[in-house]
Amino acid sequence: MIELEIGQEVEMEFGGKAKVLSVIGSGGQGTVYLVRFNGQKWALKWYDIDKMKKPKAFRKNLEDNINDGPPSSQFLWPKYLTKETEDGTFGYIMELKPEGFDSFVDILNTYKLEVDSLTGHALKKNVRFASLSAMVTAVINIVNAFRQLHRVGKSYQDLNDGGFFINVNTGAVLVCDCDNIAPDGSNFGIGGKPGYMAPEVVRGIAQPNVQTDKYSLAVVLFKLLFRGDPMEGEKVVRDVCLTESAELRHYGQNAVFVYDPADTSNRPVRGIHDNVIRFWRIYPDYVKDVFIRSFTIGIADPTKRVIENEWQKLFLRLRLEIIQCGCGRTNFSSMFVQESETKFRCPKCGMEFATMGFSHRTTRLPLYLGCKFYACDISPDSEDFMTVAGELVENKLKPGVLGIKNCSEFKWKAKMPDGVFYDIFPGKGFPVWQGLEIDFGQITAKI
Amino acid sequence: MSNEKFTDPALDAMDDNLLDFDDDPLSATGVSRKSLVIFFLIDTSGSMKGKKMGELNTVMEELIPEIRRVGEADTEVKIAVLTFSTEVQWMYANPIPIEEFEWARLRANGVTSLGAAFRELNQRMSRNGFLNSPSLSFAPVIFLMTDGYPSDDYKAGLEELQGNSWYKYGLKAALGIGQEANDNILAEFTGSADTVVHAYSGEQLAQMIKIIAVTSSQIGSKSMTLSDDTGKELGEDDVFAAKQKLLGQQIQELVSSQTDGSDIPFDTGW
């Protein structure tokens, strides 16, 4: 392959030159450089075309993707192609990863290595989600990004832990390595990792497509929530050494989910898979059931795999069911004592939580200081799960009095103890009380 | 109704402290990682003295931070260095995680006991020895560097080693340094000629060590990378030693893309 030198200038397809500043990293298909182009810093991915099976078709696909633009703002999308060199080598530039995002790899490791430039020593720095809400929001964002991608008829092809950056404070997600994205059904010879690839791809009988993406997505979600491999249990560990044929067996021919209800041969092993054992107990059944479906009937029958919209709905529900107790305990409502249909109690400190029901769904929102609901919760037409519509706050002028603040741009109506509905304008709020009812317009809510 | 959600007896039995510790969905530890041990077998016989050893020490020091980046989330890379001259000796008593590994500069002296090195490697390359990770392991990477003809019965040592499953599935590569090193012997060790390379100059030595060490640890620390256009159901035979084949291909590609070093060969000017 032709490597670029620091200081070298690369001609861009539509004029101008990108100057190579440093190496960012290298992967299976080529090397990523930091470059300056048009007075701005960019990342340049420069391909090793010798490793490509169809470089011309690959370049054409990349060009199509650039022209189509990203499916949503969650993608670090290719921006401009370089000119081809005489031997056909080329690359593309994309925006740099913004500050504040950590790689999915570092999140799974729970730390990242920062190398001291003076001594060369590597220091471990913790990488953890700031809150449970941020973690579930990240899950929703990942699902949503793939929903958007599949909606425009494309597949990601080689979904794995190297493909995402996540902001651990907000749950914002950036999908990177978008250069293998291709229209569903076409493929330019990308390989993959058996742990993430659908079994039929590992076995060599299918090419990556939207259905295999769905399998890989389920693996990514499982790893993020349960912090382990859905197919690595007793059966796999007994082999000791993960040879190529062991991988073919455990991730292809005979993949068994660690919590397959009908097959206990591959359960997680204490001392090795402690995360999975611990977290499997915590998550509510409606989440576990969908993972079970993905990794049992979804293995053999790609059409039975969970669609993104279903994942999105269930994780939106999961985020609403988080309870952050005053004693410091934060968990899903399923891990709190359910006192009655509308009340939860903290098993640790005994604090009680009322809940609010919404007219368009059956699940209820537990109320605690700092709890939020989103634009999609108060309007049936909205799919916006990132913009906060309302939050439970303490009145700044009357300490100890809790109420709901209207963070949306719309006027709400709220029923006060005198039985009258009052207008609640954006930025205003109202106290929470036993008989509270809120009218958001098309949707109503009630304690 | 009140205890409906808490019918799990294991949960009821827990005292508050344990419940507290155990049920925070954010309290994850790192995902269980597969371990990969990279074995360096290094000739420290007298003939390695001077420029060769100086070059080797320097490139190894520089190399460690580069290999550090190859491990992915699910791989923990460890390093073990076995030197052989008249005696065989491990640099450290156990494989050391790459984040903590510090290269101890080597010195050259004595004869080339390659057979003894093979035997020592065979003994340590076991579940009771250096490959004692409780979780899954990838097959090890074994990288041999030598500049001379073995002074002991290397064949007997190699035969013992060849009976070791870790060796069988491991990724093997070798570097011959200077005119004396015999590539055929090295190919006997790796099992294939394409994972053997040769360096005749200091510049080449540094290049080749980097190429082999980085490529083999990249391939060794990842799951098998599959090409997806096979079009037929893969069997065990199709994937056997797939990584070793890939290593051979990549080493050859990289080696052929290197230009010849223009500095003075090791074997002249003594």
Write the layout of secondary structure elements.
The complex is a heterodimer of chains A (447) and B (270).
Chain A: E1 9-11, E2 17-26, E3 30-37, E4 40-47, H1 55-68, E5 78-81, E6 91-94, E7 102-103, H2 104-109, E8 111-115, E9 122-126, H3 132-151, E10 154-155, E11 164-166, E12 173-175, E13 182-183, H4 199-202, H5 210-226, H6 234-237, H7 244-253, H8 274-282, H9 285-295, H10 297-300, H11 308-320, E14 322-324, E15 330-332, E16 337-340, E17 343-345, E18 352-358, E19 364-366, E20 372-374, H12 375-378, E21 388-394, E22 402-406, E23 412-415, E24 421-424, E25 429-431, E26 437-439, E27 444-446
Antiparallel strand pairs in A: 1-2, 2-3, 3-4, 4-6, 5-6, 7-11, 8-9, 10-13, 11-12, 14-15, 16-17, 17-18, 18-19, 18-27, 20-21, 21-22, 22-25, 23-24, 23-26, 26-27
Chain B: H1 9-13, H2 16-22, E1 34-43, H3 51-68, E2 75-84, E3 88-90, E4 96-97, H4 114-124, E5 141-146, H5 154-162, H6 165-169, E6 171-177, H7 183-190, E7 196-199, H8 202-220, H9 236-239, H10 242-257
Parallel strand pairs in B: 1-2, 1-5, 5-6, 6-7
Antiparallel strand pairs in B: 2-3, 2-4
Would you kindly provide a written description of the structure presented here, covering whatever features stand out?
The complex is a heterodimer of chains A (447) and B (270). Helices cover 26% and strands 26% of the residues of chain A. Chain A is of the alpha+beta class and 447 residues long. In chain A, the strands form 7 sheets. In chain A, strands 16, 17, 18, 19, 23, 24, 26 and 27 form an 8-stranded antiparallel beta sheet that branches. Chain A has a 6-stranded antiparallel beta sheet with strand order 1-2-3-4-6-5. In chain A, a hairpin with a 6-residue loop joins strand 8 and strand 9. In chain A, helix 3 runs antiparallel to helix 5. The longest helix of chain A is centred in the first third of the chain and has 20 residues. Chain A is globular, with a radius of gyration of 25 Å. Chain B has one domain: Rossmann fold (3-Layer(aba) Sandwich). In chain B, strands 1, 2, 3, 4, 5, 6 and 7 form a 7-stranded mixed beta sheet that branches. Chain B has 10 helices and 7 strands. By secondary structure, chain B is of the alpha/beta class. The chains are: A alpha+beta (447), B alpha/beta (270).
